[in-house]
Amino acid sequence: MKKDEKKKAGPLHETGRSGQGGLNGFQWLYIATRGIRFKPDRAAVRAELAAHLEDKQADLQRIFPEMSPEEAERRAVESMGDAWEVRKQLAKIHRPWLGYLWRLSKVLAVLACLWLVGLGVFRGDDAYLGDNPYSEWWDMDDLPRTAVMGDDDDLRYLPGDDPDQLLALELGQTEHIAGQDVSLRRAALWQEEDGLELYLYLRINTWRFWERGLLREEWMKVTDDRGNCYVLGVESGKHPEDGSLMNALTMGGLGPFHSGYEVYIRNLDPEAQWIRLDYGPTEPLFSFTVELKEGEK
Amino acid sequence: MKLDKGLMAGSSTMLVLTLLESGDMYGYQMIEELSRRSNQVFQMQEGTLYPILHTLEKGKYLSSYEQQAPTGRMRKYYKLTRKGRELLTEKKSEWEKFHRGVEDVLSGGANALSFS
Question: Domain containing B71 — which CATH number?
């Protein structure tokens, strides 16, 4: 018998040895509950019966003060009934599969919750499942696929996917701010009919998803080496053809531990050698510079 | 006076449920209370009581909770549920029927064997 089992049985194991066929309290408890296969159930039933034996023994000693602890235990054990018969009955009631089924159901419930959370609240563009080969369950390369809606146009952000593409970079500039990693992941430049169009993708990674911040458009300042400042949002005006904003910062992806942001600049100065992003209310919290040399080929 | 175990066997569940009708109790308390209420006629063995309690609890006729005894040990108290009360009503009705039948047979009455 293990030491911890003796502890659980309380002081009874230390006292008398007689009783049913010489069983002491601990032995009676051990036999009576041994048929319960599910351990948590067995421990609970044993504790309950041990408390009963202690009560009985204490009462006997109270009523018969001259009775020895050994004798009180012997009588208490005797009154409990046949340990083997009790074992048979308890084993029949406490079937192990019920306990295991209960545990399994809890595990399944947790998995179902995670599944729902994955599909719902934290479902991101990267988790889109469709016919598009660029869609995947998890963002393996940490770069946006941008083809989540199945629109072929979206593929032009990838290197070499568009004849008008002047530049397509997969970058890795990262800054660590308040426990979150902000990185500039991608840059692409096109020659459109009405000028140059620049696309940038920013990503924020954090395990502490509840603390994840949102980027504010008004805090993003975009400048170039020629002293141009590109205003984002409504003030940048609307595209004459499709009516969309000329320059903008929009959310472009959301996963369990990341969020993505896209920056569009549609009136980029053709002479610009580099462009700089500064983000912050007054002083920049992070800054990134993108060389545009290749775009001038 | 101790009774033949067989006499008590059929009514054990009803007796346990009846005890809990008056309030929550733990196992040892139930045995003592049963003995007291029956003037020491019913001496239910622990080996009989606990399988009954656990069966009733599994069947949701009883619920349980733990409370610390003055000795520091945790005691498991049983409480009658609504389903348990319904079972008790059923058991009492069965018992009444059985009791009347036995009475009739013993008294040799005309309707002695009319119960089913």
Answer: 1.10.10.10
Chain B residue with Cα closest to A52: B28
pLDDT digits (tens, 9 = 90+) for A224-281: 999 999 989 888 888 887 788 889 998 877 777 778 888 989 888 888 999 999 998 8
Chain B residue with Cα closest to A41: B54
Per residue in B44-75, pLDDT (tens digit) is 888 889 999 999 998 999 999 998 887 777 88
Question: What is the spatial distance between Cα A213 and Cα A235, in angstroms, rounded to a whole number?
Answer: 24
Domains of chain A, CATH where assigned: 5-95 (no CATH), 151-291 (2.60.40)
Distance from CA of A77 to the nearest CA of B (A): 10
Residue B101 lies in a domain: no
Q: Is residue B14 part of a domain?
A: yes
List of chain A residues whose C-beta atoms are within 8 Å of the C-beta of residue B45: 79-81
Cβ B47–A45 below 8 Å, yes or no?
no
Phi-psi region of B80 (alpha: psi -120 to 50; beta: other; left: phi over 0): beta
| Residue pair A194/A270 in contact by the 8 Å Cβ criterion | no
Q: Which positions in chain A touch B50 (Cβ < 8 Å)? A: 45, 48-49, 52, 86, 90
How many C-beta atoms lie closer than 10 Å to residue A28's C-beta? 30
Q: Give me the number of domains chain B comprises.
A: 1
DSSP string, B39-94: TT-----HHHHHHHHHHHHHTTSEEEEEEE-TTS-EEEEEEE-HHHHHHHHHHHHH
* Position A212 pLDDT exceeds 90: no
Looking at the complex, report in whole angstroms how far the Cα of residue B109 sits from the nearest Cα belonging to chain A: 40
pTM of the model: 0.48
Closest chain B residue by Cα to residue A83: B47
Task: Tell me the pLDDT tens digit for each residue of A71-95.
Answer: 888 888 988 888 998 898 898 888 7
pLDDT higher than 90, residue B99: no
Q: Is residue B109 part of a domain?
A: no
B27 assigned to some structural domain: yes
Instruction: Write out the residue range of the structural domain in which residue B87 sits.
Output: 5-96
